[in-house]
């Protein structure tokens, strides 16, 4: 019905969402490849930048269920239908290696910030979309917990990029995220709280992956940015850097709070590949921000995420704090 509705329109948004829906529909019709879990469409909609909730594996019967919240620039389009669904599929496949009763969900149930979109790109620097998304995510996880047939299912919330800020917001909605036992944060610019214990699952159940060359995990804090701007106006770039460093002498604050990979935040930091450098002989690359789930590009990170999702965090390969 939704595809038919969008096919009757000729605006850019409808065409973009239709391309995403067609790709999701293609994958559903094609079915799983040998060794892959079945695909379930749990929700779809055209409101805002689009809505799509897809599970690989049955979330009602699996003992282990993870829900991945994507971040900046995610919308219902062909890229989401290919890349973000693959991340959930890869997580499901990896988790099922450790426990066959596992499912992995990609949850696009909110309007993630889009950049560039003029002044609207400033949304990524604010909390409003994360707060709204956090409330919606809590509602979804409450339903997921209630419909699961197991007595005490193991639920994991995974936030990537701005999605980690959305997961952080969800934990502050009174009582934490319903049913969630573990939280994974990858490529995070901060989650809105300064201590892992503030996420409601206990600091030993908060897991962080931060690639060395992922610039999103090193965004300057608001204090650094403000001081840096003053320094830049006063005496150039060197002064800007010094002023910013003085404003955050521990160098462990990011835009949305304490660096989740820092010792002061107190989560468990697991190993990930350092990722491609931002600037190399091949040009500029932000790929270090997108490899966490990919078993081909970063098998250590992908397996660590799967271990947490399977309730096997004791087997994680750990990394030192920043």
Describe this entry's structure for a reader.
With 322 residues, the chain is of the alpha/beta class. The chain has 2 domains: 2-216 and 259-315, Rossmann fold; 220-254, no CATH class. Helix content is 35%, strand content 17%. It has 8 helices and 12 strands. It has helices at residues 2-7, 12-30, 78-98, 128-147, 162-171, 222-235, 237-247, 299-309, and strands at residues 39-45, 51-56, 64-69, 102-108, 154-160, 180-186, 206-209, 253-254, 257-258, 268-269, 279-280, 283-284. It has an 8-stranded mixed beta sheet with strand order 1-2-4-3-5-6-7-10. A two-stranded antiparallel sheet has the order 8-9. A two-stranded antiparallel ribbon has the order 11-12. A hairpin with a 5-residue loop joins β1 and β2 (51-56). It is globular, with a radius of gyration of 20 Å. The protein starts with a helix and ends in a 13-residue tail after the last helix. Residues 118-123 and 221-250 have low confidence and may be disordered.
Q: How many beta-strand elements?
A: 12
What is the name of the CATH topology of the largest domain? Rossmann fold
**Structural class, please?**
alpha/beta
**Mean pLDDT across all amino acids:** 88
How many separate structural domains? 2
Number of alpha- plus pi-helical segments: 8
Instruction: Note the main sheet.
Output: 8 strands, mixed
Choose one word for the global shape.
Answer: globular
SSE string: HHEEEHEHEHEEHHEEEEEH
